[in-house]
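User: Could you go from structure to sequence for me? I need the amino acid at each position, not a summary. Structure tokens:
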């Protein structure tokens, strides 16, 4: 999906017509999932890790970073979904959008657009777009241990930390094979509900 296509899909998330919003969500979800699925494809071969990630039907959410104005428009067009309880140090606001057939989006923005938070940095560097892909996990600590030992994947944080709505999270940048761009990576979040 080229820059104009993702921009158009993001804009369409705030369309008045529900069918336009649903189509846009599906486009963004498929785009985010495509890179993530290539990046994590070998993970499903590891039985314990696959079970921790709820295989054969993993719950995957695509995290979409948008500017504050787009965040407000998208939220308004989709019935004002509840804001997540995000730890203050993360300098983010977010809400979830749920669609048929497991299409899940996490819409994120920075509380302080010129601040030092991850979302503010992402928006300044890349503009609006897919920022992360989130996999629900039964035990983040054990999954990270397996990823470190068997796949050589390093977590961003030494230990899982508190995420939105009191979840436990950790992140990793995972190479995307076959994408063509050298050093192409996708940010994967593992999250554990409490």
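Assistant: Here is the amino acid at each position, in order:
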């Amino acid at each position: 999906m080229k820059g104009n296509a993702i921009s158009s899909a993001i804009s369409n998330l705030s369309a008045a017509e529900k069918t336009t919003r649903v189509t846009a969500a599906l486009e963004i979800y498929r785009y985010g999932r495509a890179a993530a699925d290539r990046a994590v494809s070998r993970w499903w071969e590891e039985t314990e890790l696959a079970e921790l990630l709820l295989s054969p039907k993993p719950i995957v959410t695509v995290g979409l970073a948008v500017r504050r104005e787009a965040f407000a428009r998208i939220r308004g067009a989709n019935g004002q979904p509840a804001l997540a309880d995000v730890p203050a140090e993360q300098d983010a606001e977010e809400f979830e959008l749920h669609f048929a057939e497991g299409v899940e989006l996490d819409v994120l923005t920075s509380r302080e657009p010129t601040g030092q938070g991850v979302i503010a940095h992402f928006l300044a560097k890349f503009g609006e777009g897919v920022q992360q892909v989130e996999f629900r996990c039964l035990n983040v600590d054990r999954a990270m241990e397996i990823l470190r030992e068997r796949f050589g994947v390093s977590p961003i944080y030494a230990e899982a930390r508190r995420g939105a709505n009191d979840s436990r999270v950790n992140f990793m940048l995972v190479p995307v094979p076959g994408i063509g761009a050298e050093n192409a990576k996708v940010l994967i979040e593992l999250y554990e509900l409490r």
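One structural detail worth keeping in mind: The two ends are 35 Å apart (CA to CA).
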